[in-house]
Each structure stands twice: as structure tokens, then as C-alpha cells.
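Worked problem 6 (solution included).
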Amino acid sequence: MATSVLPNDTQGFHTELQSAMDKLQKREDRSEANAGFGSTLGGMAITSNFLAIVTEGVEGRLRGPRPHGHSPALRLQRLLLRLEPQVIALAVLQAGLFSAGLGNMATLRDVTLRIGRALNNELWAKQLLNTNKKLHTKVEKAVKERYGSTELRMKAAKKLAAKGDAEGNQFTMREWTANEMAHAGEWGLTLLQETMPDVFTIDEPVVIRGKSQERVWRITDHGMAMAMSAVQEAVLKSPVYQPRTEPPKAWDTLVMRVAEDDRTLDRAQLIRTFHKDVLSAAKHAIRTGAMAPALKGLNALQAVPFTINTWILDLMVDCYNRGIKVEGIPRREQLEIPARMADAEFKELSIPARRLLSKTIRGLHKANRANTADTVQFVEDIETAQRLAPVERWYTPMNWDWRTRTYALTRFNFQREDRVRSLFLFANGKPIGEEGIKWLKIHVANCGAFKDANKVGIDKKSFEERVKWTDDNLAQLEEYVRSPLTSLGWVEADNPFLFLAAARELISAISSGVSYITHLPTGWDGSCNGLQHICLMTRDPQGRLVNLTDNAEPLDVYQVVAELAKELIEADLGNAELFGKADDDKPERKTYATLSKLAEMALAFGVDRKLVKRNVMTFSYASKEFGMSEQHFEDTMAPLELKLLKKEIEAHPFGDDDDEWRLASRYLAKRVLQAIKTVVKLPAQAMEFMQILAKTLAHEGKPLQWVTPAGVTCINRYHESTTEQVALFCYDKGVKVRTRITIATGYEKPIAKDKAAAGVAANLTHSMDASHLLLSVGNAIDEGITDIATVHDSFGCLACDAPRFIEIIRETLLRMYQDHDVLNELYESANADLTPAGQERLQNELQKHGFDGPPLKGELDIKEILMARYAFA
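Solution. The predicted structure is:
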């Protein structure tokens, strides 16, 4: 039923609206196929507009006069009183929209039975929930994973519930008869006619399916116009931003048009937030000029012109077409799913074997769905790049999140993964020079990150060793560039396409000499940048581990933590103490093991920097044991399961099922966190201090706020949601409605204390690295370095600009922390916003945790940053 709502004049380079329409159309078609017209954007708009009205109608009918005797009406009323009025209203409304979406194919009989079936299904789900909550959750999750169609989900859910779980819990409920279904359907149909006469109508009798004349249920022209208006507004307000052919307008106001297609209604905001106080502070900072340093950096970044690396683009297409396995290129073929077993054959399997088979099939389906999604994105990226290829220069408009972290508004941008970033070349070029060739060699080694016999990546060694590695491998690099489709060693690089692009640039530069005009971005990353900022705030001497000092060769904090974690894990060998605990309801679950067994598995797998890296990185953002455990599950356990499904490994090294993998994840998180806290102590104190400030202010209903070195006010505001969602069983799209709450006049909505405390360290640190980036870009612009591409703590520039640009990055970082005592400024800001009673409470809380004020600083000499060669390397 989905209908195009845009004029057909979207040809040419301006494709924001056409791309938005194409994207929306695919989503609409998929939604309608799975759950009917009510799940489309237009249908959801009708639902949102009328749900409250239909709910009032339901409440009025259920509160109305009691039907007489033992009539069907009385039995129906008693049954419906078991459901919430909003659920009844949503079920009836969605069923009505589903039928109306069939056009002239929905008879009154069809819609009546569909509404009756929808109510019967919700009653079944409600009874299942009341009978066995665990079975309800398990069944709903299982069918949502396996089926897209809501009708198939419902059939499968009833079958699974009747079959029961491993504990023998089963559930069945008598289905309504056809008469009962029709009676309930008539009740719902009358409700829709009474509450939504402008949306639904019943046409005069027509011939249906070549048979007798029947009356048809459909949406009125008014209702259809409402749906189409919602779709059109969504497209016009949410264009799929495309790179621009002309420089974006410089940000000098809070809101402005960013899309290149003038028909859009979109007005992008400088800062991605809805909080009025954040926006008000930003307006004031723009007006007074306080934000000028930040805006200077942002406007310089979005004014950088790019062009497409067509050699890499063509190579990607060839790799995909030939099925060459490269990280970032989706598979052409889906993984093979085992054929469905006959019921008798399946029943002969043991219960563990059945579970393993079912889990394997679900995993393969999930992997295939992920690959399909990756393929869609890959094709979109290739199409965008091919459209940009003939364009001499194009730009990516940008804005900030509320912490002033810079993001591109376009989906196709330099901050994306290796596959996309490698397609970017600076439109402007410069002669590379001798120094430029040296830094390009370093960049080649960094992108490759190949390991030596001791499993140490070349990107973790000195600059001199990186240059030597590149020189020693020039012949091989040349072979990769000459025959990339047959000489495939490059695919093993850490960033294969960036590596190959850099190798080709280097070969060209060596061939042409120092006058070669280079266009390739070379990248220089911070050494665990979040921890760098916390160490600078606290003057922690362990800042040397993140290369803030004049180290003869780069130090690797990840490796230091990995070695200590390994020692802690080795100490568990032979320890029979249990980790985890048994599930009393399901004693067969593997939810506990001895520390010795867990240590054996971890050591056999290997405790290295890769295993601990994400934990160490996110520690600076207040990640705790639970979060680190989830990271291990996502980064280690799940990928190993996928390798098992692909038959790339014979067995999962951490056990056979989710219980064992989660147990191992929790164990790894505990030991890695223990190692991190041993290595870096002052940052942990700083994060605890920040959380105390945030909680104390939250106690008074106030957010913690600070002004960044780039002149932007950041407000650490978190509130509990004031909306709730009404959803149907096995249905993906709920409808948000306002919770009926009463707030006394003069009081603000309460701050979510725990969320504010949990987020403050990450938010403060992100705002510091964002300020450093923006100020560094501004300072580079002042010295004529204008071709810059950034990814938060990674700075890209032409190789010939690298020597000076890296110095500017370090000089800016030093100046930031010389000019700003960040933790003291945060403390003063909190004190200024607190009442006298709040100030007293703050002092008590600080003393309770061993603080007299801001944490005492260590002895790190931050001036060493100027000589810290590997701080950004």
C-alpha cells in the first residue's frame, strides 16, 4: 500500500531526498509485509493520533452498563477486563489498519475476524504471562528471533508454549470459536466506527474475488492523506545527508539548513540535544564569542574538500565480485543452514544435542541476517563513492554531540571503518618532500600493524623501526600494489584497505621523487587517549605508560595490563574456589566453575593486549566490571561462536553454551579490572570524585556542568523517562504515550542520580578530547595546515604536514592543562550551584571517601608532552 510521496525530479547530484525516500520505502515495504499497514510510518502516525481516543472508547464501553444474564456480551466484557484498555485499543486499531491496508480485498467479515483474533491473541499472551512469566519471556524472545511476520510469530508462540520448556512447564488456552471471534470482532469494529469515523469507512457492496458482492472496509481519503503527510514530512525532515559539492555554510548560529537539496524542511542543530538549558547556553556562547575557538575548529574540518580514491574503489568491487575475503567486505554466499530434521529423528537426539542444534541454526540465521545488512550498507557505500568519483571536490557537513565531539552528518564519512576511510583523499595536494616520505613510511607500518616473531605489532615500535620495516618490505609492497587480486598478503593487515592505499601512495612517491604531489591522509592516534586526559588531570606518573613523557620507544599500557592480568590469572591455577553460583531452579546450567578451570581456559586461549584493550580504553570512561564483562562477551565470545558456526574452529575455547561464555566473560572482567586498578590508581580516584559531585548535585535536582577549554558549556543532564510504551505480544513497534504524572508547581523533574554519576567521567573526558581536537585544528589552520581529517583522538593530515602537525597537537594538549585545572574547576562549578546545605553534604561525602577537596595530584611533569614523540603516533 506504500505510495511515493515525492516528485520525480530528484535526478542529479542532489540525492538527499531520493535516498531518504528509497530507504524509507524499503523499510515501509518490510514493515507492511511483516505486520501490516499499521506498522508503517503512515499507519503508526494514525495510531499515535487516535490511540488515546480509541482507549477512551474502550474505557467507556467497559465501564458502561453490564450486559444482561449470561449473554456473549457479558462473557466478552469479563474477558476484556483482564487486559489494559490501551492494549485493547492498540490491538483493535492495528487489526483495523491491517485489513484496510489490503485495499479492496478486505471485506467486513475479514476485518471482523481479524479484530477478534487480535483480541484473542492478547488474552492468550496475558494468561501466559500470569501463569508463567519465564515461559512468556522465553517464547516471545524465541519467535521474534526466528520470524519477521507477526502472524507466523503468533502461531509459533502457541506451539512453543504448548510444547513447554525443559522444566516441563506448558501452557495452552482454549481458542475462541468462530462465533466468539466474530462477536469480539464486531465489538471492536463498532468501536473503530464510533471513535474514528473520519479514518475508516465501509464501502457499498462490490464483487470480491469473483464471488458475491460484499461490503469493503477501507481507510478514508482523509485518513490516507494523514498517513501520506506523515511519510512526506518524515522524508523532508530526515534527508539522508550526502556529501556536498560546495563547502557547507560555516556554523554561526544554533540552527541552519544543512542538506544540499533545497526542498528539505530539515534544520540541523549545531549540538545534538533536546535539552533547553544546553541549547540556551550554546546560544549565549555563540553570541558572546566564548564558543569561537570551538566553532573555528568545527568549521575548518567541514570545509576540507575530498575526492575519491578510485583505485581502492575499483579494487573493493573486484574483491566482492571475486569473493576475496577481506575484513569489511561482506560474503557473497550465505552460510548453509542444516536441513530440518524429521520430528522422529529430532526426538531421538539427547536434550543437550537438541539444544545445540537449535542454537546452531539460530546462530547461522543470525549471522546470515547480519551479512545481509552488511551487504546493503556496502552496496550503499559503493554507490555513493561511484557517484562522487567524477566530482573534483566534495565536503561532509558536521556538527557536535552535547560534549562537542565532532561527527559528520553524512553517513558516508571519514569516521567510518577502514573500508570507507580508505576511499578518502584530500582534494588539495602538496609536494611530499623527504620528511613526508619518511612519515608516509611510518603510516604504512601503522596501517599494516604486522606482528613480529614475538607477536609485537610493528606499529608499537619506534619510528625508526617502523621506517626500517617499510624499507625492508618495499619489494613486497610493490607486489601488493601491482597485483592486489593475486598477491593477497595485504588482506592480513590490521587495516587492509588503508594499508594498501598507503603502500600505493608510497610506491608512487618513491618513483616520482620528493616533488610528488600527495593527497593521502596519514593518521596519528592518541595512545589510549581517554587515559591520557585523566592522567593529565591528575598528574599521574603512570602517564608515561600512555606516552605522555619522553620515552625512547613507545610504551603500551594495554600490554602492561595484559601481563599483570595474566599473572593474576596464573595465580588462580589450582584454586578450587568456585566462581559464580548455581541456578537453584535449573541445576543443570553451567553457571559456576572453579577459578582453576576458568584460569586454564583463559591461559589456553591467550591473555594478550587485544583481550584487555577495550577494557582499558573504557576504564577512563568509568566502565565497571559488568560493562567490561559485556565487552568480553561481545568482542571475544560472540566472534568465537561465529567462527565455530563457520567451522573455522573445532570447538569454542570457553565452553559449549552462553552460560559458560558469560561466566568466562565475568571472570576475565574481574581479573582485568583488578590489573587496571593496580596500574593506574589516581585516575580511579578522579572518577570517584566526579561521581560524588554528580550525585550530590542530583540530590538537589541539579546537573553537574562545566565549561570546556574550547569555550562550550557541557551539562551532565540525565532524567528518568516520562513516557511509557504500549505494545502487543510478538509485535515490534509499540506506541509511546505520556505517563500520567503530577509534578508540584515550581519543582523541576528529578535528575536520574545513578545515570548522572555513571556518565560523568566519560562525558567529562570526551569533552576534553573534543576540545583538544578542535583547538588543535584551529591552531594548525593558523599555520597553514588546512587539510585535516579527524576521528576523535585520531588526526589525519598530508604526510608532508605531519612533523609540524604532530607538534601542534602536543603543544595544544600541554596548553590546555597548563591553563585549566579541570578537576578544581569542576569542584568550583559544583560548589557554586549547590545550596549551603548541599555544600555541607558534598564535604561530608568527599571526606567519607578520603577527599578533602579535589584529589591530590601526582608528580607527572606535563611539560614533557612537548618531547613525547609517541603521545600521538
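Discussion: The longest strand covers residues 398-401.
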